[in-house]
Design goal:
This protein is mainly β. It has one domain (7-200). It has two helices and 17 strands. The chain has helices at 13-16, 91-101; strands at 7-10, 27-35, 39-40, 45-48, 63-66, 68-75, 83-89, 109-120, 125-132, 139-143, 145-146, 149-150, 152-154, 159-162, 165-178, 184-191, 194-200. The strands form three sheets. The chain has a six-stranded antiparallel β-barrel with strand order 2-6-7-15-10-8.
Length: 203
């Protein structure tokens, strides 16, 4: 039976990269990610901000600097449930992650923040669909493990940004559980007037 608290957001990363502009779509940004004993990912991707109007709280301005464009965000909704994110990142970022997880990982702690916006077709308004209440500090988690395998991976082959551009992005997917003794407030919305607040982790 489906979990009524579950949040599963698929984002239009090509629209976010401004290579598909025919219609409005959900866009997600991986804003910050640092951990695993010193792996601090750079905001080396800059894309447009289709929202960029009054009412946007987390970001402002026409451009967004981020680590990657989110393709999918999953969270079952309870305080101890893992968060799983798949994002498209630059070749350099993918290489840095691949190199780090290719060596023994003794520190699995990660601090990260994300931001997802969507368009309410009924009200004809952009709205903030998913974010950490304190994006400047982010949420604190630890890499999940299943069957002894850390839940982080990097695509071997890149995905073309568009058929007309010789630029490739690489999928990075990771799953984090709340860090022990840490709590973050997460905000979600399913429309411009339908908001909800959830806790992740416990102090």
């Amino acid at each position: 039976m489906p979990n009524p608290n579950a949040i599963d957001l698929t984002c239009d990363w090509q629209f976010g990269a401004n290579v598909v502009t025919t219609e409005k779509g959900r866009v997600g940004y991986l804003l910050t990610w640092s951990g695993l004993g010193g792996l601090n990912l750079a905001q080396d991707i800059e894309v447009w901000n289709p929202y960029s109007t009054a009412g946007q709280k987390v970001l402002s301005g026409p451009r967004v600097k981020c680590i990657g464009l989110i393709e999918r965000f999953q969270f079952n909704g309870d305080v101890g449930d893992p968060i799983r994110i798949r994002a498209l990142v630059s070749r350099g970022t993918a290489t840095n992650v691949r190199d780090r997880i290719g060596r023994p990982v003794t520190n699995t702690k990660v601090k990260f923040a994300w931001y997802i916006i969507d368009f309410d077709e009924e009200d004809k308004l952009w709205y903030e669909a998913a974010f950490v209440k304190t994006p400047s500090t982010g949420a604190e988690g630890a890499l999940d493990s299943m069957g002894g395998e850390l839940q982080i991976s990097v695509d071997k082959d890149g995905t073309p940004l568009s058929p007309s551009l010789d630029i490739r992005v690489f999928g990075v997917e990771f799953q984090l559980v709340p860090a022990e003794g840490k709590k973050a407030t997460l905000e979600f919305a399913t429309g411009s007037k339908r908001r909800m607040v959830k806790s992740w982790g416990e102090t």
